[in-house]
Amino acid sequence: MVSLRTRVLPYLVRGVAPTRQMIMRPPRGQHWTAFVAEVDGEIIGWVSAFRNAGSTRPVGEISLLHVHPEHRGRGIGGGLLTAALDHLTPLRLPLLRGRALPESLPYARRRGFLPSREERFSALALTALPPPAVPPGARLVALSEVDPHHVYEVERDASTDEPGDVATDALTYEHWQADTWDNLGLDREASTGVEVDGVLAAISLVNRDGTRMWSDYTGTRPAHRGRGLATAAKLASLRRAAASGVTVAYTGNDEANAPMLAINERLGYRPVAAQWSCLRETG
């Protein structure tokens, strides 16, 4: 499964251990499941389906549907999508969200999923990174040294106004801990925060697979924005990751998230792919 995803979606970084963890111990309350397609014992397609537990809006998610390029055009993707829809149907969720590559939008429309928002994926080679500029009164700290409840509180507060189809307005600590903090791919030493007067104000999380990494979340509490804290946290996390052997970093952002896109562009990220959030109302 990991080799298939790396082949089809190389910018979505998840290693073997966290993938096994996701399958064997999915977060509670999400009704999470996954389906694969096999040919001669080889996995050539994957999709997962679950209830979004981080929002007060009842939404079903269809995530990471992808098929090996050499096996497309045979109805495999359609079979996976049907299996995911059948899994979500008993939950009676009024809204479903899937994601589609630009070339797959005509197919998504035929299945009732209408394009809503575009997401940009970007990559950065971790070479010659400058030192972060830390404002007076602030200090960088590895998140391995921080109480995870404080990390959760920053993400909870910072994500409330993040652009997207579904608001993250019901993120509990238990869900966040299972999905983020206990993720075996999280590099807590590289993940970095910025403290201001002893209070954690900004974070940048690193998920790692060998020499590749994914910036899982970067954000600043609303009261501390406009001081470059998110930039400092992200740059410091990139430098820590590079020092431990990471050579390329990936990230993804809604095209309407101008502040985060500006940070990434200043750091040298370049677009490598795009996908669309697509919605289907079920009535």
What does this structure look like?
With 283 residues, the chain is α+β, with helices and mostly antiparallel strands. It has two domains: 2-119 and 276-281, Gcn5-related N-acetyltransferase (GNAT) (Aminopeptidase, 3-Layer(aba) Sandwich); 124-273, Gcn5-related N-acetyltransferase (GNAT) (Aminopeptidase, 3-Layer(aba) Sandwich), CATH 3.40.630. The chain is 28% helix and 33% strand. It contains eight helices and eleven strands. The chain has helices spanning 2-8, 16-24, 76-88, 105-110, 148-158, 173-181, 229-243, 258-267, and strands spanning 33-39, 42-51, 59-67, 95-100, 114-125, 138-142, 192-196, 199-209, 212-220, 248-254, 270-281. It has an eleven-stranded mixed β-sheet with strand order 1-2-3-4-11-5-10-9-8-7-6, sandwiched between helices. A hairpin with a 2-residue loop joins β1 and β2 (42-51). α5 (148-158) crosses α6 (173-181). The longest helix has 15 residues, at 229-243. The radius of gyration is 19 Å and the shape is globular.
